[in-house]
């Protein structure tokens, strides 16, 4: 069974339905904030019983990108929008876009895994069912493609290509030279399954998305607030 087909936002709205609705209206976004806002608007438009809140404070200096909540549950969502250079027109909206080249894909992988670890802290049993989602949208094929060679890289354990699993202790660095501050210890086991989002004209015109669902875990000092 397609695991992502079962992922629901606030216990009611399938994630795949939201992504399809986004794609029907727009295929490109100017920034991560633009992506977040469009996603939140699509959720509320598809199910007006689901409330959406952007940038909800969780901990000292820590904010959740989006909190969705309704009668059937709550979902904490973290977003990443990592782009390669692309200039063109969105065929859905007719809007002109000039996406910049972010570079540093290793740090983008680290950021995504950090989001997963944060969601594990925030998603624990409570009075209402809860899950978390780490969502990545990109047109950088290096994010979903396996590495070309076998040379060790500092982000080797953080790779996000199709077919990998994120689980256990992930160390940043190479043998004998690890950077402990970037290490993450994951409680869950997360298979990585990429989905097509859009195919546009020009170089870097292929956009794909990845989502990791975090289920409820045992309580920690952190707790999602805002609902």
Kindly list the characteristics that best describe this protein.
globular; 36% strand; six-stranded mixed sheet; 14 strands; single chain; 19% helix
Give a structural overview.
With 227 residues, this protein is of the alpha+beta class. Helices cover 19% and strands 36% of the residues. The chain has helices at 15-25, 32-46, 105-122; strands at residues 8-9, 13-14, 51-59, 62-70, 73-82, 86-89, 96-99, 130-138, 165-170, 173-174, 177-178, 184-191, 194-199, 206-214. It has a 6-stranded mixed β-sheet with strand order 3-4-5-8-14-13, with helices on both faces. A two-stranded antiparallel sheet has the order 1-2. The chain has a two-stranded antiparallel sheet with strand order 6-7. Strand 4 (62-70) and strand 5 form a beta hairpin. Helix 1 (15-25) crosses helix 2. It is globular and about 50 Å long. The two termini are 32 Å apart. Mean pLDDT is 90; it is low at 219-223.
The computed structural class is alpha+beta
**Ends apart, CA distance between termini:** 32 Å
**Which range best describes the helical content: under 10%, 10-25%, 25-40%, 40-55%, 55-70% or over 70%?**
10-25%
Q: Tell me the strand order in the biggest sheet.
A: 3-4-5-8-14-13
Mean pLDDT: 90
**Tally of helical runs:** 3
What is the percentage of strand-forming residues? Answer: 35-45%
Order of SSEs: EEHHEEEEEHEEEEEEE
| Low-confidence parts | 219-223
Say how many strands there are: 14
Radius of gyration: 17 Å
